Amino acid sequence: MRNLRDVRPILLLLACTLFLAKGSAQEPDPLPLLVKALDSGRIVVVDLTHMLDEETPYWPEGRTVTPFKAKVVGTYERNGLFARELEIPEHFGTHIDAPAHFNPHGWTVAEIPLERLIAQAIVIDVTQAAKGQEEYRVTVEDIKKWESTHGAMPSAGIVLFRTGWGKRWPSQKEFMKQDAKGSPHFHCLTVEAGRYVMKQMKPVGIGIDSPGIDRGDDHTYPLHHLTLDANTYLLENVGGLEALPDTGAILVVSPMKLAGGSGSPVRILGLVTNPSGRLSSK
Amino acid sequence: MRNLRDVRPILLLLACTLFLAKGSAQEPDPLPLLVKALDSGRIVVVDLTHMLDEETPYWPEGRTVTPFKAKVVGTYERNGLFARELEIPEHFGTHIDAPAHFNPHGWTVAEIPLERLIAQAIVIDVTQAAKGQEEYRVTVEDIKKWESTHGAMPSAGIVLFRTGWGKRWPSQKEFMKQDAKGSPHFHCLTVEAGRYVMKQMKPVGIGIDSPGIDRGDDHTYPLHHLTLDANTYLLENVGGLEALPDTGAILVVSPMKLAGGSGSPVRILGLVTNPSGRLSSK
After folding, report:
1. What is the pTM of this model?
2. Which of A173, A226, A274, B13 has the highest CB neighbour number within 10 Å of its CB?
């Protein structure tokens, strides 16, 4: 009896260990957990997309009026239903540059693999450094600072730059800040910073809250070529970046499925773990 | 000593039980699990969206040519970049009807709460019943059959009807099957079936692989009114439904963020647990 009593605790410990080990080998299916977490408000959906209408800022070179039109073709009174037809450039509002925008051999917008449209996001915040500046250019040092806080950047993610430029939306004048020659100016990236991100992270996409990562007056577009030639897509005029944590969010980037398209207005939704756990409005 | 030895197993059991109880009360954060599962291919992304181009079927009443245009405004040779401007109706291709399409007090497309754009999907398959029929209308019995197999439908989900009509895409003639008066005909729902789904499930959205859930020649649109008046959105011309399981997928429904819009072309991406666990192409 005494021997049996001695091994009993060991047997129990073994059983518990085996049970726990089995639990971690076969991780739970994330989808039912996600449904539950969305229901309870533990995970919230955030919108990284600006509104599309006649007030939406547009690239100003060669244009003085908005290229967006929404023509009402059905009304409740006349037709019993409300409907419109749109005129809209592929590169308008919060939008995606597909690799084919600059790279004849790159994916068109409909060809971007689905796995690249749902990815984890990291946010590099430079609002303090950019404050009060007319054209701040993100440096390699800014990115190294992020790395020293958060560790190495994960690969195959989406790198987003929060510069503070988004606060100027939707003022065409303030968002595009044209110089005497008509070229726009805004916060963007140094070529070295762009190279560093591409090398360190091999991201599926790079986004920014301004009109783009290249300087507005550099018509050689060095970073558009660098990224799109590597099939990394670009997200421009990204909204709502304040709602994203530095790491941990998952983005769903949804362009229209335009056959042969160079880009598209996108809806970008983010899944964010809500530490306060408040209930959603669903 | 003997007494201590007696309680030892009980203490260990208690500790293990507490540990396990804590584990289940605080469920793991689904987002890191989702990233991992997408990386390993345990969860795959499927596309429920048809391609948008000049060949995309369009609603034929009052039209004989496509309302879609993509005008090239930049070429690699001339401009160093490729870009287009689009003409596109709000209700074109795989698209969403916002409540405001029929309901003056309903949400416009930009007003649909984000929580309703990411939801679990159930698929009701009627392809066998519809086979060979020119205009099959889903019955209450079809839905009850689904319920008898899968149990009660979850609420606040997206109900999708797979009728087989999608196989006719992108033939304008076969997809719209106009009668002598010009009205289109396609697989749709009986009014009773629509009522039953609304009552049983209170879905955030209802979708179908045909042009709509109402009969094409019924210009009173009873089911559009019933659903949109209850702020349930509609998804029309949904593609790729073969890739969805009957239950368990999560959909991300992404319309353009059109201020005051009655609807929009949508990208619909689905997250599906892949039982075979094959590696993704990422």
Report:
1. 0.91
2. A226
Nearest to A97 by CA among A7, A192, A231: A231
Cis peptide before A28 (omega within 30 of 0): no
pLDDT at A154: 86
B51 and A259 within 8 Å at the Cβ level: the answer is yes
- The answer to whether the CB atoms of A83 and B262 lie below 8 A apart is yes
Average pLDDT of chain A is 92
Average pLDDT over residues B1-12: 57
- DSSP state at residue B108: P
Amino acid (one-letter) located at A146:
W
CB contact under 8 A, B261 and A47: no
**Residue (of A117, A108, A274, A102) closest to A207 by Cα position:** A117
Task: Specify the 3-state DSSP secondary structure of B53.
Answer: coil
